[in-house]
Every structure is written in C-alpha cells, then in structure tokens.
Write a structure and sequence with these properties.
mainly alpha; 6 helices; transmembrane helix; membrane
C-alpha cells in the first residue's frame, strides 16, 4: 500500500453494509426534514420526539460508518442538531421582548437547519461525504 492510499480517509464497505447505512441515513434525514419543515411552517410543529429518535439513531449507528464517506453524514446531522439547539436557546429571550422578534429569530434558525438537512441529504444521495 502506498502512503497516499493509507492517508485516504475512505474505507470501502461491503455493499450490504453500505446499503444498510444508507437506509439508516435516509431515515434519519427524513426525520430531520419533517422536524425542520415543521419548524419553518407556522402551525405545523413536528414533535421534538422525532428529532430525538433521529439523534438516537445517529448516535447508535455512527460507529458502524467509521472511516467511510457516510461517517461525515452522521457527524453532520449531530452537529446540525447541536448548533440548532444552541441557537434556539440563545434566541429564546427574544420571545420576552414580544412575539415578533422571537418568531423571526426562530424562523431564521429553522431555515438554517432546513438548509443543513437538505444539503446533507443531497450529498448523501450523490454518495459524497459532507464537511
């Protein structure tokens, strides 16, 4: 093996395992999408339980994808949820000023979260890692 091959961060998985991880990723992205769309559209709030299920799936299956291009997607989804949660908490006091500033801030965070989910989903469908 050459040094270039050893430094390659992509591990080749058997087709069955890769398909299994891809299915898990699609389910997780689907759950994230339902929550993200629900957060953007007023009155269509999806349950936080769906997001917790998606996070649990990602945490449980993350090690199975270690070293493969799909590992980046597990990290991407977990980071997206963590940052969105942080930004929701950070902007929560704006709701005390009146409804409008809080709604605007949360709408912006929700749109950003939806963007991250869609960007990740598109990269996964193209079998590309995401950073």
């Amino acid at each position: 093996m050459t040094e270039d091959t050893q430094n390659d961060a992509t591990v080749l998985l058997d087709p069955q395992r890769e398909q299994s991880l891809r299915t898990v990723g699609l389910i997780s992205y689907l759950l994230h999408t339902v929550v993200a769309v629900g957060a953007v559209l007023p009155g269509v709030q999806a349950s936080v339980l769906l997001l917790l299920v998606a996070v649990a799936i990602d945490l449980i299956k993350r090690d199975d994808a270690a070293g493969s291009w799909q590992a980046s997607h597990f990290s991407w989804r977990l980071r997206s949820v963590a940052w969105a949660g942080f930004f929701y908490l950070l902007t929560s006091p704006l709701w005390l000023l009146l409804v409008v500033p809080g709604w605007i801030a949360w709408a912006l965070v929700s749109i950003w979260f939806l963007y991250r989910v869609v960007r990740g989903w598109l990269a996964m469908n193209a079998a590309r890692s995401i950073v």
